[in-house]
Structures are given as structure tokens and as C-alpha cells.
Amino acid sequence: MQRISILYDASQAVLSTFELDEVLDRILTIVRDYFHLEGGSILLLDKERKFLTAQRSFGKEPCTAKIPWGEGLTGAAAKLKRPIYAPDVSKDPRYIKGPTDTKSEVAIPLMVRDQVVGVLDCQSNQLDFFDSETVDLLTLFATQASIGLVNADIYSRERKRTQQMEAISGMARQATSVLKLEELLVELCNSIVKLLPQYSVALLTAEGDGTLILRSHSGSLKPPIETSQAVLPPGNPAQEALEKRTTKVLRATTSGEPLILFHTAGSVLLLPLVSAARPLGVLVVGAEAVTGFSEDDIATLESVADICATAIQNAYYFQQVEQLAYVDGLTGTFNRRLFERRIREEIDRATRYQTTLSMIMIDIDHFKRVNDEFGHLLGDEVLRTFSQLFHSALRKPDVCCRFGGEEFAIILPETSGPNALLVAEKLRRLVASHEFAGIPHPITISSGVADFPRCGNTRDDIVRAADASLYFAKQAGRNCVRFPESSPAPTS
User: Fold this and answer.
1) pLDDT per residue as tens digits for the range 190-226
2) Does the pLDDT at position 9 exceed 60?
3) Percent of the chain with pLDDT over 70
4) Who's near 29: CB < 8 A, 6+ residues apart?
């Protein structure tokens, strides 16, 4: 009775703290000092991976092994949910050789409500050291130790959850302060990796046709495609997750089939980004382990995905409002304000990456006559038609702006002067052949071309050169294209 009383007091010491490291240390201290053992270990069960991992040990050769479920004395104790005793380890085929002077060993499962949480492994340098009374006392103590471990685990998870929620709250505040979409996507990826450094993340946005585009990523795992590229093939799991509005977990298989975006990952989590019933994209999270996502982490990441969706939706709203400030109210194309911003951005980019840039300045020939002869309403319709014609013939990266009155300016990124001349000539022929509603005769344009860096290194240099080229075109009789100090444009 006295031994049980002393052991009870020791058990209370284990239950008096919620710090996992302290619980582990107190359990092993009691086992070592109270039972006079030469070696001992606490192994905790990884339920998903089905193996036991040594967390703490004492003795000449501390245990650092991972024991598969059902193997060895400890694995057998966990599987059978009862103590396993080897009075002579050299004669027990289940014994996994450890410290060389161990003669006898007992493994006692750590259980709460019939659920195994780990194993208490005790070793002695004496043969048949553990009599039935000692095993019973160790089993009794293991019951209290199990409760202490579970309490510490619950406390640890709750504390982690609280810390994560505080970090998520901070992330939400930060996200609302960034309204530029590109900046926001980068900020979100970096914030998530900072919050959960064990993961790599990528943000995909949904285009109008449903295509998912990689916009930003962060972490040690790298996508095999560059940003701004589509995630292929169509119908991939990320699109399915977005269409069904459900979180999906993908795990690597023995076939070696790569996982979406993070091909070297053991598992990938796909979280749909939806705000106000609008599908915005997918948050892709990669983990190195096959079972890399606990239920708690999935719940945390779903909260993060909600924040991402709200922030992205806000950025889209801001983008729409900002775009209204850069759109010409009559033609629906970009206005002079947008031109001034983009020409400087493109010159900076061309300078940084040592590429080319061209500009086309276009003027509608004798447009005043159209207004005088057919009225301003029809003249306005002609301007709208010009905008549509230009947009239909240009690339997606090209920027078409109404420069003022009947003048249009077109920015052609990564385009040389000779190629810009071909584009300008293509537009000239397109306009000349078009039948404008209500106008019985053809309408033509004159165009001037300039390029960077041949015509200069600044906004003023390029615009001045394009304007001079346009003047040459008008002097040459209109309905043509000119380049500074150049001959007529190609007519192919």
C-alpha cells in the first residue's frame, strides 16, 4: 500500500503540468528513480503514419528510433494494448536490439479510453528484473502518465490554435491594407508560409473562361511552371475543387504520378477561394510528407483561404474602381491617364530587361469633316468603332489608348520598330477596308511609329518621335505609316 501511495504522489506530479516536455521528463524521472531502472523511453504514436517515435529516453544509449506499428516489443504492446514482457531479451524474437547491456525489458501501452497514445518502454541490466507486482505498478503509473500526455497534447494544440488565430487575425488586417492585386497575391503567399513554415503555397486565380493561372507562390517546394502560366491540363483537381467548392487532399502514390503544382510534394491540399458566390481561384498548399495535413492544420488553412478570398475580392473591386478612372467614357478604351502611367512602366521594364518597346500614334484623317457632314453622334460612333477594330487586331499585352480627340496611342511591349511598322500598316489596311455604318465613303488613318531605345530613353523622347512620325505621314498625303527619318512602311 505504501508503494502505491508513493506512486500516486508521483503521478500527481506528472498531472500538475501541461507542458509536454515537462510531462515527458517527469514520467521518465519517476520511472528511473522509483523503479531503479538503467534505461527507459517514451514513444508516442503517429496515428496517420502508424509508427512509434521516441520522444524522451534515458540510459547509456538513448532511443531515437521509429518503431513500425506491431513490430518489436513496443510495437507489439501498442498493437495488442497490453504490457509485453521479455525476461531475457536475447531469447525473444520480437526484441529490437538496443543498448548492449539490456537483459530484460517491458513495454507498457499508454492508453486513454482504450486508445493508444504511445508506449512506456523500460529496460534493466538484470535478467527477469520485472516481477508481476512491478509490471502492475508500472501499468498503473502508465495510466496516469497517459492522462498527463493527453492533457499536454490538448493544451499544446489549443495554444498552437490560439497563436495561429492571432496570426491569422494579423494576416487579415494586413491583407485589407493591400489593394493592388499583384502585390496582394505575393503578400498572401509570404504571410501563409510565415504562419505555417512547414508548407509551400501557391495562389491560382480563375480567368473568365475558367482557366486557372498561377499568380504567386512561396516556400521550399517550387512549381514546374512560371507565374502567369495556366495550370494544365483542363479539368485538373484544382478546377474540380473550385467547381465543387470543396477542399481536396491529394497524396503521392507508388506510381510516382506528380501532384498538381508541387510535383515533389508528398501531399497537396487544394482550397477553393470563393467570395459572394464568385469563384476566384484556388489556394494550393504542398507538404513534403504523404500525410502532411492534420485536421487542425486543414481547419487553419480553410480559415486562411477565407481571408484570401475576401482580400482578393476586395482587390478586384478596387481594380474595377481604379479601371474606371483609366477608361475613356466614350470609346471604352483606355484614356490618356492610363497611357501616361503605362508608357513609363514599359520603358522602365524595357530598360531593366534590355528589351525593346514601340509606340504607334494614330490620327483619323479629316475627322472634322465626318462630324461636320454627319453630325457628332455618328462621329462618336465612328470613334467607338475604331476602338473595337484596334482591340480586335492587337495582342493582349498591347495597350490601346484614346490620346485625345481623334488621336489614339498604342504601346507595343517587347516590339521592335520594324515589327511595329508592320502592325501599324495592318491597322491602316484594316481601317481602310472597313465600312463604317452611316458613312458612304472610306475613312482612313495616318500613323507614326517610334521605338525604344532607338528613338530615345524617356517618355518624352518616344512620344516626341512618334508625333514627328505622324506629322511625316500627314505631310506624305495621309493614309500611310511613317517612322522617324525612315522610308514608307512595308506594304506586305
Assistant:
1) 989 988 899 999 999 998 777 899 999 999 999 988 8
2) no
3) 91
4) none
What is the grid cell recorded at 229?
A: 502560366
Cα 449 from Cα 410, distance rounded (Å): 10
Dihedral (Cα; 432, 433, 437, 440), 10-degree rounding: 70
What is the distance of C-alpha 378 from the center of its chain?
A: 50
Domains of the chain by start residue, with CATH: 2-156 (3.30.450.40), 178-323 (3.30.450.40), 336-482 (3.30.70.270)
Show the cell assigned to 161.
490554435
Separation of alpha carbons 295 and 24, rounded Å: 24
pLDDT tens digits for range 301-315: 998 999 899 889 888
At 92-147, the pLDDT tens digits run 999 887 656 889 999 999 998 888 989 999 999 999 999 998 998 899 888 888 88
Question: What strands lie across the sheet with 267-275, from one edge to the other?
Answer: 212-218, 200-206, 278-287, 267-275, 248-251
Is residue 241 within 8 Å of residue 282, measured between CB atoms? yes
Rounded Cα–Cα distance for residues 461 and 412 (Å): 16
Model pLDDT, residue 492: 41
| DSSP helix/strand/coil, 263 | coil
Spatial distance between the Cα atoms of 430 and 384, rounded to a whole number of angstroms:
15
pLDDT at 164 over 80: no
Q: Is the pLDDT of residue 336 over 70?
A: yes
Do 474 and 362 form a contact (C-beta atoms < 8 A)?
no
Active site residues: 406
